[in-house]
Structure formats: C-alpha cells, structure tokens
Amino acid sequence: MEFKLQLSQDAPATSYNIPIQIMGFDETESIRINSSETIGFDALTRANLDIASVKTEPVFGTTGDDLKLTVRIENVGAGEATSVKASIQDLRFPGVKEAFIGKIKPDDDNPAVFTLLPDRSGNFDYVLRIDYEDDFGEHYIEENLVLVVRPGDRRIVIIVFFLLAIGSVIFLYYWNRSKREHSE
Predict the structure, then answer these.
(1) What is the pLDDT of residues 66-76, one digit of tens each?
(2) Which one of 55, 92, 139, 174 is separated from 7 by 20 to 30 angstroms, measured CA to CA?
C-alpha cells in the first residue's frame, strides 16, 4: 500500500503518529485480517540564513583604530538553525575574526560581532562564511563583502603638537619675564 502525506504550511515541525487500521481477508474468505498499527514520521524543516545588515563602528574605519564590524544574520527559512558560526576570511587585519552565534529561530536574526585593527587604508574585499545546521544536516553560505578603511587623520597630531609648542613658548616667555621682575 502506498499513499502520500502533505503537511499544511503552518503545521509545526515535530513527530507525527498516524493510526492505520488494516482489514482484509483471503480469496476463500477463510482468513480474516484485522490489525491496528501506528505509522510515525518526522516533519523536517529547513533553515535558510542570509545577511540582514552589515554595520561598522565607526562608520568609516581608520588605520590604527579599532573597528567593530557587526553582521546581522537572519533566518528566512521555516526551520531552526543551530550551531551557527560566522567567520571572516581573506582579510589580513589582526583582530577577532570568528563569532559563535548558536541558534537562530525562523524569522529571527542575531548579530555576529568582529573586532579588527586595520593597519592600512583602502577598499578590502573579504568573504563572510556562515556555517549552520538544520534538520537536513550541515550547511554553509559565503558572501563577498567590502570593507572601507580611511587613512588615519594625522592632522590632529600635527595640530596638537603645534598647540603644545605655542603653549610652551608662551609659558617660557611669562616664566622668564616673572623671574626677571623678581630679580630686579
């Protein structure tokens, strides 16, 4: 005997038991069969992860300063994603390049946070890899992204040095002036 089963879209992913009653008899009708059985099956669901947003703090990273990269990962599938982890590949900056997220339920999202220390400026291509599991096994996705890093602002250092130099000259002028007035 063969039959097809289909769950509705809103049916929960769980184990189902279907009672089956089999009745029959042989050709001579001398042997009658009457049996009640239960058929069990598991309804499986698939997770489908995607990137919801990419955010950097500060908005534009600069060389020599910490850069926090936050990637929000969303589950647009019907099943729960487990053992979710994200990693940055092909980006040669020092820092934390792996994040363990854990579970992401359907229609939910969680952040993966990375801390980087850019040592040069420019536009840098990198790959964000997301590994996860669902009812159908292990999966991964890879997305090509770009990180923009500006050169560090050396003007501030020059301005601070200039102000310290002017302040030192003014201080020394008044200090020498007051010293001469006391000695006369």
Answers:
(1) 899 999 999 99
(2) 139
Residues 6 or more apart in contact with residue 35 via CB below 8 angstroms: 21, 22, 23
Are 20 and 38 contacting, i.e. CB atoms less than 8 angstroms apart?
yes
- Residue-wise pLDDT for 114-168, tens only, equals 999 998 888 999 999 999 999 999 999 999 999 988 887 655 556 666 778 788 8
Distances (CA, A) of 48 to 75, 107, 180: 5, 10, 81
Residue 45's closest CA among 104, 95, 130, 126? 104
Q: In whole angstroms, what is the distance from residue 52 CA to residue 70 CA? A: 11
Q: Which two structure tokens, joined as six digits, stand for 166?
A: 């002017």
Burial class (CB in 10 A: 0-12, 13-18, 19+), 113: middle
